[in-house]
Write a structure and sequence with these properties.
Mean pLDDT: 80
Strand content: under 5%
Helix content: 55-70%
CATH architecture of the domain at 537-663: Alpha Horseshoe
Distance between the termini: 54 Å
Keywords: TPR repeat
Structural class: mainly alpha
Protein name: Amyloid protein-binding protein 2 isoform X2
Radius of gyration: 28 Å
Number of helices: 31
Number of strands: 6
CATH class of the domain at 537-663: Mainly Alpha
Organism: Drosophila lebanonensis (Fruit fly)
GO molecular function, one term: ubiquitin-like ligase-substrate adaptor activity
Strand order of the largest sheet: 1-4
Shape: globular
Largest sheet: 2 strands, antiparallel
GO biological process, one term: proteasome-mediated ubiquitin-dependent protein catabolic process
């Protein structure tokens, strides 16, 4: 029986692409093999021998096994064998099926990710520790780094290397340096003063030194361990199991630091560190991420190697992502621009898409929407065409496109894009997954903004509840990512309570729940980011709005004032976030505290900022215009009242036209640009402050873009968005 099954499946496999042997025979053979399995000893012996099959067949057998609940324990044991998983993870066509298998096992609480991580660390960390003990007896041995971690690097003193003009294959390599100032008169331009270093130049400078005496590659066994560690660490983070990914990559990094040097060890170490930095930042483990960044900077300072341009671009992208997750938007934008400079036409599709996505997000938070639109549309198109509509990269790109649309006031379109992104992620990862929770949260926030005027938050509440439930099962109770989802839930509870109170119902309990959730998020933000951080300021602003609802006006005033000061100090007086908090304080002064003169000044400042950034049809202007009309009516300044009543009527006409015609200020760019064309457009788009300006009602000017919805937080997710 066993021999016949193996013969049948092998024959079917050999004929899969042959018209004389239809695919149906292969599928029937798979079902026959899996259907004959059970947990008896003879069956387990047969299952154990399956690993002798070709990888393309083996992954199909395991995929079918993952759909049979009685076989999941057996499958868990098979895949927990590092030798088996190593074979499969190196087979690129098996990757999507591996993701599906791990999702099926995790849904049944079969923790394959933890088993793999623990097995890798148990097998290879011990050898690294033994090597460490030997190294402690030889502290001066070449390649050892026994100094304590360096302090935060002074990026501004480091030089940018411009390799845009290097021709041929040498264009793929250059020294890896941190950026200097990339702005000239507030316009993005390529830096022309930097030195270009190619591989030949480095070889000539270094002469016949240490590197020539190093082996070209590590010993075979070490090479296998490195390759498997990089693949496994990246796979686990791609699958949404960040803590397990971090454990694998940390183990590999320690091993690399103690390994006998070989020719490309710097490239391998930087590759390992940038993957580790991604997992740590995505998991909001910022203390570890900072240590990883410090190690990258230290490696850079002592680096004599020539690095592939794609690796430089990805490393800069991960540094940008870390700063983005920490709400350090200037640094995030700076590093993403550097990543764009090193992006090459011949870079792998994954690298191109990830660099474009992160640069787009960094442009969004800098309100540079024209560049953001260019980049994210290219990322979505490339992900769709290269990987297909069911691939993770397409789902990732959609999630970032939804973030862009939400921030340019295309809320309805944003909801639809987020829904598609969630469907893609659920199709890959199932329900109980980190990436799926993030997608639920983002969709919940988009629904919250979309339904803000109707008060129907059913869909928003459903998705945020799912996000919170998933996060409770996969991260600690005091985790920053869980706090992010709870913050969105707090916003919803507040609005639901307001609607019920308007109907004469007592909903104090909902408001107290909202306060508890907001304070939970604030305390975590203070612990992780400190007082002077945009995220902390947003939490102060959210509490200010809540206290206003709860008639705690003095506390509300203090919260809004804190938010305004922190945001102004960090972002400047004309940033969108500053305008948002100013508008909220104006509302408090206007409707509750009767400070009409201060309210008028604040409303005018908020309107000025909105018009500068987003133009006359921006959704948030409605609340400021209504507030001003209330102020002028109350103080009997009927001339100004009539003036702003007319402006508000014009706003309604503009807004109605945009909604009726489904207009967006930034329509999707579907042109098939090359990377060189994308980079040219990116670096030559006119300065956002000098194009498309319109006149505001008080004589100021503003751009013709549109902007973010009226909430303290422009992005509900900490880390991904």
């Amino acid at each position: 029986m066993e021999a016949q099954l193996f013969a049948l499946i092998s024959a079917a496999c050999a004929g899969r692409n042959n018209n004389n042997n239809p695919k149906m025979l292969y599928d029937l053979s798979l079902k026959a093999v899996v259907g004959s399995m059970d947990t008896s000893v003879p069956s387990l012996d047969r299952i154990h021998k399956l690993r002798e099959l070709p990888r393309s067949v083996l992954i199909d057998v395991y995929d079918l096994m993952s759909q049979c609940e009685p076989l999941k324990d057996t499958l868990l044991e098979e895949l927990s064998d590092l030798d088996v998983f190593r074979r499969l993870i190196r087979h690129t066509p098996a990757r999507s099926k591996l993701l599906r298998i791990i999702a099926a096992l995790m849904a049944s609480k079969k923790m394959l990710s933890r088993r793999l991580s623990e097995a890798y660390v148990a097998q290879y960390a011990l050898q690294a520790q033994l090597q460490e003990n030997e190294d402690e007896e030889k502290p001066e041995e070449e390649g050892q780094k026994l100094d304590p971690p360096p302090q935060q690097p002074e990026y501004s003193k480091m030089q940018v290397v411009d390799d845009d003009n290097v021709a041929g294959t040498s264009a793929s390599c250059s020294r890896w340096n941190a950026p200097s100032n990339i702005y000239v008169n507030d316009v993005l331009r390529p830096v022309k003063s930097a030195t270009i270093v190619d591989a030949n130049a480095v070889a000539n400078v270094n002469g016949d030194s240490e590197e020539d005496s190093m082996p070209e590659v590590p010993p075979d066994d070490e090479g296998e361990i490195i390759d498997f560690g990089l693949r496994l660490g990246s796979f686990l983070s791609e699958a949404g199991w960040m803590q397990e990914s971090i454990a694998v990559l940390e183990c590999l990094n320690e091993r690399l630091k103690r390994m006998k040097p070989f020719r490309n060890i710097v490239i391998v170490r930087i590759d390992c560190l940038q993957r580790l930095l991604f997992a740590e930042s995505a998991h909001c483990n910022f203390k570890m991420a900072q240590l990883t960044l410090d190690e990258l900077m230290e490696l850079n300072r002592n680096c004599n190697s020539v690095l592939p341009a794609s690796l430089i671009a990805m490393t800069y992208t991960q540094i940008s992502a870390m700063h983005f997750a920490r709400n350090e938007y200037d640094n995030s934008h700076m590093w993403s621009v550097l990543a764009m400079r090193y992006l090459k036409t011949f870079a792998p599709a994954r690298v191109i898409i990830d660099v474009l996505r992160q640069a787009a997000k960094a442009c969004v938070v800098k309100r540079d929407f024209a560049r953001a639109n260019l980049l994210i549309c290219q990322a979505v198109r490339r992900a769709r065409e290269h990987f297909g509509r069911k691939h993770q990269k397409y789902g990732d790109a959609l999630l970032d496109y939804g973030f862009f649309l939400l921030n340019v006031d295309s809320v309805f379109q944003s909801v639809n894009v987020y829904k598609e992104a969630l469907a893609v992620r659920r199709g890959i990862f199932g329900n109980m997954n980190f990436h799926v929770a993030i997608a639920h949260e983002d969709l919940s926030y988009a629904y919250y903004v979309h339904e803000y005027s109707t008060g129907n938050f059913t869909c928003a509440q459903d998705h945020v509840d799912k996000a919170v439930e998933i996060m409770k099962n996969i991260v600690p109770s005091n985790h920053l990512i869980l706090a992010s989802a709870k913050r969105v839930k707090a916003l919803l509870l507040e609005e639901i309570a307001l609607d019920k109170m308007a109907d004469g119902m007592d909903e104090e309990d909902l408001l107290h729940q909202s306060e508890e959730l907001h304070n939970f998020a604030l305390q975590l933000s203070l612990e992780v980011f400190g007082e002077v951080n945009v995220q902390t300021a947003k939490h102060y602003g959210n509490l200010g709005r809540l206290y206003q609802t709860m008639n705690r006006f003095d506390e509300a005033e203090r919260m809004h004032q804190k938010a305004i000061k922190i945001k102004t100090d960090l972002l400047g007086p004309y940033d969108y976030e500053v305008g948002l908090s100013i508008g909220h304080l104006a509302s408090l002064y206007n409707y509750q505290m009767k400070k009409y003169s201060q309210a008028e000044d604040l409303y005018l400042r908020s309107i000025d900022i909105s018009l500068r950034l987003y133009g006359r049809s921006y959704s948030g202007l409605e609340y400021d215009y209504l507030g001003l009309c209330h102020v002028y009516e109350t103080v009997h300044d009927f001339e100004k009242y009539l003036r702003y009543a007319q402006i508000l009527e014009n706003w309604h006409m503009l807004r109605g036209q945009n909604i009726t015609q489904n207009k967006t200020s930034y329509p999707a760019i579907e042109e098939d640009y090359t990377i060189d064309e994308v980079k040219t457009k990116f670096f030559t788009i006119n300065n956002k402050w000098t194009t498309g300006l319109v006149h505001s009602p008080n004589g100021q000017t503003g751009s013709t873009g549109s902007g973010d919805p009226t909430s303290e937080s422009a992005a509900p997710s900490i880390g991904v968005n």
